[in-house]
Design brief:
Blueprint (H helix, E strand, L loop, with lengths): L4 E9 L6 E10 L2 H16 L6 E8 H7 L9 H4 E4 L7 E3 L10 H16 L7 E2 L20 E5 L4 E4 L9 H4 L3
Parallel strand pairs: 6-8
Antiparallel strand pairs: 1-2, 1-3, 4-5, 7-8
The structure holds zinc ion (ZN) (2 copies).
The site of one zinc ion (ZN) has 8 residues, from loops.
């Protein structure tokens, strides 16, 4: 039987040569200490930087995330993607819309991807599209290292973005007008 829980942490890189903004990372692990080890190990692999340059905080497990979740508990991964609440009586759950870095086993990927796609289809996450290549949140394109792209810039109101494979579009009028 699989005793692993899913863990989520907020991670970022402090490597001056290879900066990464804060993202949610997910691993599956039996306990907090192994989760921390796996996050450091797999992120250092994923980002190609020394583990010393990787910082992360707030490692919470599946049960903790479900306990603090305010939105629906289904699909099963949705409490894990929840990252806030809009507030007020009409409030609703806010979900992580930036690329979720899945530092994870195939079964964990599957749980999170199912939740992500369901939330997009029920409009709880607005899907953004790259003006360069047309890739979207749920269908990232691959860069020259065959790594999935991420957003260099994304406007969640309009759903328009520029992904990391389309840097030359950063000055495109439909994007730069907004700055
Ligand atoms: Zn693109
Ligand atoms: Zn892309």
């Amino acid at each position: 039987m699989n005793q692993n829980l899913i863990w989520r942490a907020v991670a970022f890189s402090v490597d001056p040569a290879e900066k990464h903004d804060e993202v949610f990372v997910y691993v599956d692990a039996p306990d907090r200490e192994s989760a921390k080890l796996r996050i450091a190990e797999r992120l250092s692999d994923e980002w190609g930087i020394a583990p010393d340059y990787i910082e992360f905080y707030n490692p919470s497990n599946e049960t903790e995330l479900r306990d603090i979740a305010l939105g629906p508990q289904h699909p099963s991964g949705s409490p894990l993607l929840e990252c806030g609440w809009t507030g007020g009586p009409e409030g609703s759950a806010v979900y992580d819309v930036d690329p979720v870095i899945l530092v994870a086993s195939p079964s964990l990927r599957c749980v999170l991807e199912t939740a992500y796609n369901t939330l997009i289809h029920s409009d709880l996450i607005k899907e953004a599209r790259c003006i360069g290549c047309g890739c979207t949140d749920s269908h990232a394109c691959l860069d020259k290292f065959r790594a999935p792209c991420h957003w260099l810039q994304v406007d969640r109101e309009t759903g328009i973005g520029v992904c990391s494979c389309c840097e030359s579009y950063l000055n495109h009028p439909s994007i730069s007008d907004r700055n």
